[in-house]
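The passage that follows is intended for readers who have already worked through the single-chain material. We present the inputs for a multi-component assembly, then the predicted structure in tokenized form, and finally a short commentary. You are encouraged to pause after the input and sketch how you expect the pieces to fit together before reading on.
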Amino acid sequence: MKKTQKGTFRRILRYLKPYSGYLVLTIFLAIVTVALTLAVPYFVGLAIDCIVGAGEVDYARLGDLFLLIGGSVAATALAQWLMSLCNNKIAYHVLADVRRDAFRKIRTLPLRYLDSRAYGELASVVITDAEQFSDGLLLGFTQLFTGVMTIVGTLGIMLVMRWQIALVVFCITPLSLFAAKFIASRTYSMFRKQSQTRAEQTAFIDEMVGNLKVVKAYTHEDENEEQFSEINERLRKCSLRAIFFSSTTNPVTRFVNSVVYAAVALVGAFTVIATGGVFSVGNLTTFLSYANQYTKPFNEITEVITEFQNALACAARIFALIEEEDQVSDAGNAELGRAEGNVSLRNVAFSYSPDRPLIENLNAEACAGKRIAIVGPTGCGKTTVINLLMRFYDVDGGSICVDGKDIRTLTRHSLRENYGMVLQETWLKKATVRENLCMGMPDATEEEMIAAAKAAHAHSFIKRLPQGYDTVIGDEGSLSQGQKQLLCIARIMLCHPPMLILDEATSSIDTRTEVKVQDAFAKLMQGRTCFIVAHRLSTIRTADLILVMNAGKIVEQGTHEELLAKGGFYAQLYHAQFEAV
Amino acid sequence: MKHLFSCLKPYRKEAILAPLFKLLEASLELIVPLVVAAIVDVGIAQGDTGYIVKMGLLLVAFGIVGLAFSLTAQFFAARAAVGASARLRDLVFGKLQSLSFSQIDSLGTSTMITRMTSDVNQVQTGVNMTLRLFLRSPFIVFGAMVMAFVVDVQAALVFLAVIPLLAVVVFAVMAACMPLYRKVQERLDKVYLSTRENLAGVRVIRAFCKEESEGKQFEERNGDLCRSQKKVGRIAALTNPLTYVLINAAVIVLVYVGALRVDGGALQQGDVIALYGYLSQILIELIKLANLIVTMTKAVSCEKRLEKVLEMEGEPSVLLEEEAAPEGADPEEEIRFEHVGLTYEGAGAPSLTDIDFTVRKGETIGVIGGTGSGKTSLVHLIPRFYAATEGSVRFRGRDVRGIPAEELREKVAVVLQKAVLFKGSIRSNLLWGNPGATDEELLAAAETAQASDVLAVKGGLDGEVAQEGKNLSGGQRQRLTIARALVRKPEILILDDSASALDYATDARLRKALKHTGSTVFIVSQRTASILHADKIVVLDDGRAVGIGTHEELLKSCEVYREIYRSQFKEEDRA
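Having made your guess, compare it with the prediction:
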């Protein structure tokens, strides 16, 4: 635990390094600010000593002191402002740098890592954790440092001015630290309970409000309300405890402050009398003002330390992401160029987790320009084959070759540029229709783009969108699943890659439109190697080769006719379609 | 604010006592400088040690009483804030559950969830801080001023000048920052969008080799965010130096005026110290107040958003006057669509036009058509998820708009397109259909829904189901959702493309089993095979019923149906 914290600190320092100039400057400015802030009450004390009573006012000295006060105040204000600017610069730039690195990492992480995590969770590392880390950093700089400086500075001056009174202050203040620490340790478990209960409630809300239509379809509202109220009541109770107990810190430390204040007033007043005015009333004023200033940072520091601990925890999560292992580098690998389209899979073995083998000893040969269909029941590994072809995942054993070259010896970019891919899970960028269509070919002309959209039968509905091709669409927007799929198809139609991968590419499109889109695909597929995954057997009937998969293995291979004649697994699947009810 | 106040009502006592105790504590704080002045002017001036000790103890006593007051205040404030926000959350949850489908559509899920969580939390913090500080800070500022007047009217004029100036500075900085904060938020949203997109779309982005350009876009957005954060920071950083300068300028003037007054014999040295003490208090409180106002503006805008939800009219139980089944209705007639039209709220064109057909008890109805042809809209009219905007849908002769929603949905079970299960066990999920069902009934429903093998794999009825059923495959979820509907033993069962993830063999077995349940079944599908054997098939095209009849009739009479059929079955396969 301690060791990892040390590591986190080292990494934070690495991010701070480019801003070390600002760091030095901000430390210098903090010293100046604290020194001047401490000087002002001292000068005010001196000024008050110039006002002893009627006819006993030293105006000349008063004037000098006013100049001193004015000067130091102006200098303090300037130093304070500059210090804030430096701190802002450091905190926000470090934030931006951390985010940039985290994002770069996302680009090079293996899909195995990304697939195994909810992307909301990763996004919250990049956004929320980074933010909390930088907030903690900023707060740490501005308050922790000046706070400690103020405490040390005040104590020093008080010791010099009158060490007896300083000693009194010194003895009482630790009380407030003890109190704060005591309360913090007690409230920690209450806060944990609160956040657990809150997480439980959020999960419930997420599930029920997210699927409100199901709830209403089953008239499950009353049961939900009951369950919600139960969680809500529990949350209320533990929130109350957490919030109340944590809010006692302030009154308690304030109480200690007032004791310190009273003690200074008491001892100070005696000293004034005892020393016959050598320790003056003005000195007492200064002391009282210091007593106030001195205790305030204690409260802040306890707050900052909690913040800082949270910031460290967040930083640790970000660094864990940033230091995650990259996908195998393909630097120095050969470029594929434009492929012929001969793909062969030899003895391929693969599994997502070692204890559950999925694909074993898979062999298949796809010659250039042929159409290969992959069929089989849900979960048999069809989509996994696509993951391997695109090198989203690397094979555990055996090899996949394109034009006789093992794809692990090629750069990922040059391999993927040779594939056009349409997946069942459509994904569109939040951008205009145009930007989405031209994703694979940013320099396409208007004519080419419209031709592709027409081929995919998307042109007519795009034209009906509010701003046509310039309408901003997104992953969540108002397009239907079928329309999104048509856009994804148009996107591919524009690039003319030598090989195609269609994974349930037309599953959400109605069959009439599909027939038309298929015609366009047929044109596109001419002379291209094409891998098709589909449930609809009708779409794969014309394939040159059908790979029938079951439980990670290819159980049958052949053309539609051959397989039907064989009367095996494929025939069984196919006939289910026509079985009379 | 109406709803927030009504939620605070049961905590009226707390909401009044909390600020009251805060004020009492603040009053004590205001007296402290006077006590110090007395120590200087009486105790030190006359060398009266007894008096000094008495005053010192008085200060400690103030501290103790103040502690008691503020603890009481914190407790009441926390109780009122936590209690009121719990009520608010209950209220909003209840309201959300009462919304109609079109209201759910227009609000959107993610909005509803943020309302329930972060908005309510912000309100809670806002109420808590307001009860604690909102009265206290202004009270101290004005109290300090009043006390200054008590000490000396002329010197107090300095306070009168500096307080408005301070207020202007604090508010001007805040006013300048608010719109900039909004901009920061917008830019942060963009950075968030980039991040999410690159995670959700990672396959497509890598397939198109777009990592570089996506990265560039992210870095641009990231840089924009950083710049606007720094801009806000520059302005916000002005608050402290400016207020510091103002207060200390006031200190100089105060000491000078004090000097003149003391010189003239109107004031004593201790009074000047007291006045100085009051100025320091004002500075501290103003900074607190500025922070409080930021918290409050946030809370108010969150409360406004909640208010909007709470003011929505929930879905009424009946839309028309309840009507009894008409005399002499055909007892075998289950559902009748009478020239039904549906136009969604805010939509330009109708989604359904002039749909007219009847369904008899126990029949199986197939609904087929292209993407966006209105299949789902049509079946959603039956349980009145949406109400027909033209014509009427009748269930055993009664207009469904006149049947209470609970009664109607008790009889009609819909399996929605998106197969969703809830965290718990398979049993707890199936019991949604009917809380009183026995295990035998649950197992029988699972059997009919072809889900027995899911139960076998997942550990029977006690098998665990993760949130939204994420630990099950699409096909497994679909079968369990069908089982859930069957547990209800519905009179009408609607399957809205609910078997799409099933392979053909399972799909066929499912249809065979459903036939034996005796329910009237609606099957919405894109697969001709799924509806081929239905008693009646409704063919939809662009919201119109272009053909109604059996498979054979439609093949003869309906061009659209023929096209759909041909697209799935080539001539030679029709054996």
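Commentary: The first helix of chain B runs from residue 2 to 8. Chain B touches chain A through 167 residues (CB under 8 Å). How closely did your sketch match?
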